[in-house]
Amino acid sequence: MTTLKQAAPAAVEPAWTGAITVGGVHIAMGDCDELRGYVDFLAQCSFLGLDIETGSAKDAGRWSMRCVTISATDASGQPWAVVLDPRSDEQATMIRRLTSDQSKSFAIHNAVFDVPVLVSWGLAPEDLSDRVYDTLVTVRLMPKLRGKMTLGDLAERFLGVNDTSLSVAMKAAGENSSVWYDKGDIDRFVYASSAARDTAICLALVTPLHTAAVEWLTSPQLGQAPTPEEAQGIITEIHTAAQAMLRVQCQGLPVNHDAVTDYRSSARERLERAEQVLTAATIVPRDGKGNRKDEPPTPLRPGNSADLMYWLEDTGNLPEDWPRTPSGRLSGDKKKLEALRHIEEVDAHLTYAETRKVLDDYLGKFEDLAHPLTGRIYPMIGTLGATNTGRQSASNPPIQQIPGSARPMISTGGEQWVSIDWSSVEPMLAAYVSGEQWVLDEVLGGGDLYIPIARRAGLIPDDVDDTAAHDHPGRKQAKVIMLMLLYGGGTGALAGNLGTDEDTARTLRQSVLGALPAIAAWSQKLRDMAESTGCIVTAMGRVLPVDSDSVFRAVNYFHQGSACDLLMGVLAECQRRGLSSQIRITVHDEIVCTKQSAEEIRSIMQHHNPCMQRMLGRAVTFPTDSHDLPEHWAAV
Questions:
Q1: Residues 450, 466: contact at Cβ < 8 Å?
Q2: 52-65 pLDDT, tens per residue?
Q3: What is the pLDDT of residues 260-287, one digit of tens each?
Q4: I need a labelling partner for 382 at 20 to 30 A (CA). Which of 177, 329, 342, 439 fits?
Q5: Does pTM surpass 0.85?
Q6: Where are the alpha helices (H) located in 322-416, listed in sequence order?
């Protein structure tokens, strides 16, 4: 069993021992009475700032802790901070003393990184997640700040603090940020003092960030924008949902090592088969501009999309209207290539790319990121993480991108899990807010969503019964078009997904729009709002900016953003009911939970939607599907 001391670098002598003042912050460090006195002061405070320093966040270096910094302000506003070394038994006890106190809450910037590390090493209880205010979540409520979300950026913007000591120290050491944190420790003065000051900055940012978020959400030019009171409620709801997700992440996920081994073996076989197909095909070599060279044919190089596109062109398998890149090259876009997957070489190319991605990006990361003590992975799920819509983002590893074939690598760890997901959540959202009542009647009556749309659009003949209609090409066309309408896809993308030319795609889209007049009118209203105000307002009341040259994206932003609102409302309610500890995974429209909690969580997903209450004046029903997962996660 690996301990924290074994996972971290050997203990070092701190850069100073005692109390000093740096940038207006009183900081204590080292084995000294000043440190003990500062901790006693912090133990009397109710709201503290917290940060940890570790190795690289991109691999197992995350588990290699160097220090925990904690701060608070006194009645005069003076910040006091400590730098605690978790490799010291006495200082590890100090950390636990502060984090375990139920009367204390903590401001943390990007808590999804820090808190699971503390919990996994036994330096904090799981319920610390219930007492965290994540300043990064508040920032993400204001998309205008995207790209400027570090504590340094925010301190300069909101506090007028422009401290360059850290960047100067990195430059003097000849290290970039990754190397600095991999090599750094508390024996470096700037490393330790900056870590302590960060907690004081985080505390100081809480109020101005909250004020700015309220101002952003109540933008006066938007008639549908929330009132100040509603904005306060939105911020609270989002932070409650973030606490629920933090609790989920602190539990970690067991790795099914047998499935990892099996997947690696089957992946190698798939790669070998794909390589055989691709290298059996040949192309005439091209120069840098794509012109044919006067040279003998050469085999296709596995994973090289340019080679495949040249082969498709040479063999006459490429549609005449195939899109090109701005430089004039044939586009190798994987989504568009799906329409040609019936060609053996295209299928081999896509299979090779998909398999290679799983091996390199997911499977390897499962092993690299596993905790040295628990053996579990702790994905970092960012609340409001997606740049435009606010949907959750995942990293280290990115479990939301794991294909269904690789999901068994996550084990239930002996628990009984249930996967619950909303049925056609974006189309149902669109039907509710637009008033497309016949769609609601069909779905809530237990019917299929896409068959009646396809029939009304003339894509399925009247003489085809519903059983046969389920597998009819018209149903698939209706589904693709409906989702592309809500995701804001253009004609070219639609044609690629349908496997047809743009004229045909345009005609099919108009047929489906004709079957959905209320949704079509609502979509146009969203585009008009984006064009006139530069924003759209989601069902919850979050304000999302839309660029003037891409107002078509307003449809996507509203529906995916409002689907995010639905999930945030469910997670917040689960947190209030004490159910967040029963959730294991969330992926877009899916919640995986323990079987004992499944019925209550399913009911919440179906009926608890305060964002719809705000928009429509009433709560509505969203149908769900559920599937038992007795041994491992799976695509269902």
A1: no
A2: 999 877 677 889 99
A3: 888 889 989 999 999 999 999 999 888 8
A4: 177
A5: yes
A6: 334-337, 344-357, 364-368
Quote the tokens at residue 175.
């290290």
> Token pair of 199, please?
């907690």
- Alpha helix stretches (DSSP H) within 226-256: 228-251
- Taking the C-alpha atoms of residue 378 and residue 254, their distance in angstroms, rounded to an integer, is 9
- The CB-based long-range contact list for 257-265 (8 Å cut-off, 24+ gap) reads 259/408, 259/409, 259/411, 259/632, 260/363, 260/366, 260/367, 260/409, 263/358, 263/363, 263/405, 263/406, 263/408, 263/409, 264/359, 264/363
Strands 105-108 and 47-54: parallel
Grouping H, G, I as helix, E, B as strand and the rest as coil, residue 393 is strand
Residue 421, beta-bridge partner list: 590, 625
Tell me the C-alpha distance between 262 and 267, whole Å: 8
* Under 8 Å between Cβ of 132 and 111: yes
Token digits for 149?
Answer: 């979300």
Which tokens go with 482? 């409906």
Distance of CA 46 to the CA centre of its chain: 31
What is the CB neighbour count within 10 angstroms for residue 524?
13
Contact 341, 384 (CB under 8 A): no
In the predicted model, is pLDDT for residue 223 greater than 70? no
Q: What is the DSSP string of 545-571?
A: E--GGGTTHHHHHHHHHHHHHHHHHHH
Cis geometry, peptide bond prior to residue 461 (ω within 30 degrees of 0): no
Integer Rg of the chain from CA: 27
Contact 606, 600 (CB under 8 A): no
Determine the straight-line distance between the first and last CA of the chain, rounded to whole angstroms.
Answer: 35
Closest CA to 206 of 109, 118, 129: 109
- Pull the structure tokens for residue 279: 């290298």
CA angle 227, 231, 232 (to 5 degrees): 120
How far is CA 550 from each of CA 155, 459, 488, 497, 601, rounded to the nearest angstrom? Answer: 32, 30, 10, 21, 37
pLDDT at 382: 92
Report which of 595, 607, 245, 596 is spatially closest to residue 419, judged by C-alpha positions.
595
89-99 and 33-42 helices, crossing angle to 10°: 10
Q: Write a three-state SS string for 115-151.
A: HHHHHHCCCCCHHHHHHEEEHHHHHHCCHHHCCCCCH
